[in-house]
Structures
1.
Amino acid sequence: MALDQETFKQLLDTVSRFVEERLIPLEAEVGDNDEMPASIIGEMKDMGLFGLSIPEEYGGLGLSVEEEVRVIIEVGHTSPAFRSTFGTNNGIGSQGVVIDGTEEQKQKYLPKLASGEITGSFALTEPDSGSDAASLKTTARMDGNEYVLNGTKRFITNAPNAGLFTVMARTDPDNKGAGGISAFLVERDAPGLSLGQPYKKMGQQGAPVCDVIFDDCRIPTSALIGPEEGQGFKTAMKVLDRGRLVISAGCIGNAERLVRDSVAYAMERKQFGKPVADFQLVQAMLADCEAELYAAKSMVIDAARLKDAGENVTKQAAICKYYCSEMVGRVADRAVQIHGGAGYIADYGIERFYRDVRLYRLYEGTSQIQQLIIAREMLKEAAR
């Protein structure tokens, strides 16, 4: 469902002002402290940012995919840690419930996720399984009217702040592939659940990541997502299609910010008696950034519209994630080059973006995994 155009425009304008007036001034502080101010989280909750994609009947804004990616492009004009604060509630932390959850699960959790009362987190990656997600080893065995979870999840975004985890675990030990995996909703205070120490990361300070450990963690059978066991991997893949489009939108927003800052710097920085923007080799770098940015934005909006129309966008989502994550890395590299020495100095913020955007090529499927998905879908189409 989409908002009427006037209401959506007001939302977009509000988000844009919030980014410019509240978030951008805090970028250095969040980067230095590796912590998101509670006041900012409160403002995000009040604006409804934790429930962008959650249906209205459960307290969210119920944005279409196209609307959500347009909002995320605006949010991308600042450090990606800000988006990550509420991003999992709209994507991998809630969409499993939205898509495959029971009505009881939706009523219980979605309003709390939409309001930001709880933060959702997606626990798929493990010490020995990342790109090869189907080989995960965390187990869930039935014991009476409970499941007992054992295993460790690694590099889990927002885990230190999470109140609810969507956990992928193997329910059929005899099925070593994707068909033996089920998805569960596990609350933070479940007995046997503990968290590792937050990791120190290359970038995206303020977006905490840690391990989630299950040691005979007991959860009720009602925690299973879907009508039966063995559907967890399918749920995860459905969630990731939309998630990859939203990640792509974040890449676009970050690239727009980097281009804006690079143009402004090139126009005021002088060498050989004139602005460096007058030199054609600098212009060439700016032009390359702008051309790639236009291509990225066009493909993401197109794919979002296809998704809203109910079409299967697995291939398009992978294309967007692959191209946009690689694109923003190239834009960030050129931004450092255009800024020269200033691009390497922390005071200007360009080097922070350079580190921040590197993660886009890794999470929610590496660039290499996206290439495999694209080729697989191409071959399926050709076979038909």
2.
Amino acid sequence: MLKLKSLGAAGTVTGSKHLLEQDGQRILVDCGLFQGLKNLREQNWEPFPVSPRDIDAVILTHAHLDHSGYLPRLVRDGFRGKIYATEATRDVAELILKDSGHLNEKDADFLNRHHLSKHEPAMPLYGVRDAQRALEHFSTVSFDQTIELRHGASLRFRHAGHILGAANAEVVVAGRRIVFSGDIGRYGDALFPDPVSASDGDPEYIVIESTYGNRVHPQGDPADALGEVVERTVKRGGTLIIPAFAVGRAQELIYYLWKLKQTGRLDSVPVFLDSPMAIDATDLMGRHLSDHRLDRETCRKAFGIARYTDDVDASKAITSNPFPKVVISASGMATGGRVLHHLKAFGPDPKNTILLAGFQAAGTRGQSLQQGAKELKIHGMWVPINAEVAQIDMLSAHGDSNELMRWLSGFKEPRRVFIVHGEPDASEALRVRIRRELGWSATVPRQGQEFNL
């Protein structure tokens, strides 16, 4: 009997882990960290529901931390199999996992130096060396290539859009075909290819994300919307701070700013990319040209407009610079990174603007800003937020409800659709749409709930 169990991203948008099990064979699709609310983050420290030594393989749809971030811990705790991913996903994962390991070590060191932990000493969830060991388990798979796994199982990746290297995964186990959406990107995206709805045969089951299962993104030109925010901020002598995901969102923002400068708008406004990881991720765009829409020359021109600040002194110089400018900095939900220093410096002044350009998970500073917070706790102190807070939903890298339905409609009716990676309202709204518009059976799993396929 083939069984499916969601060990994460069930009832929430974080910690994606979906386990396929049949006659002792175990395949884990995605292996993400829980982020956001404390009760979610605490699950990262709990024993893994299955012994990592008993997992045969991990299939990684893309490298975002909520899909890949638990891999170093899984390997440290005994996983010995292969981690299958596209080539670009492997390269992006190297940036993200090493950075995550470094931040874990840094946080533990801070707690120990200031005696702020109830554990003595505080230990990181994993470190940089653990991340490096995890990378040694990667085995890259080309898009649209079917490979054989153990015990007669097979895997095929197809483009999902979303970020560099992102894929949906078609897995065949015990003769049953299951398609995992990963995170579905946008149709007509400026940088990344359209999500592909295809299968070597009709899938019996589809596991689909539902981040925006209850929302439709506004229509319009993202570059124009971005330009309006920049122009009104500059007009009042302010600085625009954009918390941005280092992989995908940062590159998209720079691309749209380049397009605006080509038309003569924002000509004299300097753009800073203040995130070492985002700088490295931008370099990867030139190394994986077949995974996105831009040619080498366009990459050179577009990404050449930003001033890259890869050291602390250069980052501090941005803060002390009084002139209008655009600062793109990680992290995208303001959970950490250099953007926190910019929020402390520019958040109190009403002439400045903070632009939210992506999904903001529950329990993050980004969501607090989204909900109108007038102060944020940063580095142990409360910082007043008097700056304008703007949001451009059309910049999202996640497909909205209509796009999720469009992707699903490319398949013939499966036995059942499983709806994951969404807050409860979003997942339930998508379930209702699937039932009403397609007439398909759809289920929103609870975490740990097991299904016989």
3.
Amino acid sequence: MDSETFSLLRETVRRFVEERLIPNEDRVETEDAVPAEIIQAMRELGLFGLSVPEAYGGLGLTMSEEAEVIYELGRTSFAYRSVIGTTVGIGSQGIVMDGTEAQRTEWLPRLVTGEMMASFALTEPGAGSDAAAVQTSATKEGDFYRINGTKRYITNAPRAGMFTVMARSEPDVQGAAGISAFILPADTPGISFGKNDKKMGQKGTITCDVIFDDVMVPARNIIGGVPGRGFKTAMKVLDRGRIHMSALATGMSHRLLEEQVRYAVERKQFGQAIGAFQLIQGMIADSRVDAYASRLMVTDVARRFDAGEKVSADVAATKYFTTEAVGRVADRAVQIHGGAGYMAEYKVERFYRDVRLLRIYEGTSQIQQTIIAKALLRESGLNC
């Protein structure tokens, strides 16, 4: 996308956030759902097709451009971004990166319009951070595979029109090499859902278990057409997804900083605005540093990702820093608000709960630490 067109898109998304999304935050929190008319507006803006190439009807944004858009969406309730998140990211990107041309042609045009949402089914009751431990089975029967197993905490599962499902198709191959990625239409017989999860925060987002009971899927629906490459596809997708998540965390850091400053100006104690007190200023300054450093890290790693550099370790560093940083910024926001910060009337209480999840999904902070350290140690000759 040329720079002028992208600037218009980014400004349009910014206005959409300010004029439609932020004013409806309380409604999303109360109803625990994103209003249907807002989801339709997101379709009309083309937000479901951000990362899909133009050849298939998408906007074809680079990682740097996508990060800028997600930064804007990060400045409001997480539920809005969650509506498009799995389609833009892990739900569609496996097909974009590793799918056959027939798979791209069949599925991507339907995803970019928002007519169909995608969901990514990887996590299981016994396989979270260790994705290679997937136990959901895919047993080959002629030109089909029979899938059995349960996936856990699957975002947008009840909304999805298709799933990218990670299943063990090669029973004699241990670890990651035995896993395949399947495109599975959501209306396939044998798919059922658990009850929607009740979460600490992020009202309006939907997660639940997905149960596969003798679900038959054609062999041609293996992404890329070759069994045993699903784990590699997942790892490719996660690099982009972690940059996306880092941009989201950065947007929320800036929103929380705005809330801190606004309250510090408005709230009076001892006859003056609390922003005049140096210890309050210290917390605001620390939050600005965290938000600013996060923005720079996202910008840098996204640019290098687009350039084709090997950036997995720095992606992990960015995801680790930005999601931990937003937790610190949220904590300071509550502290600056004092007792009011603990009350649901003020949005910092809500955001404090919401941002906690960012340190867990798309790889926990501890997984990111492991990726960073192992990359450095391997460079120094240690096999770990």
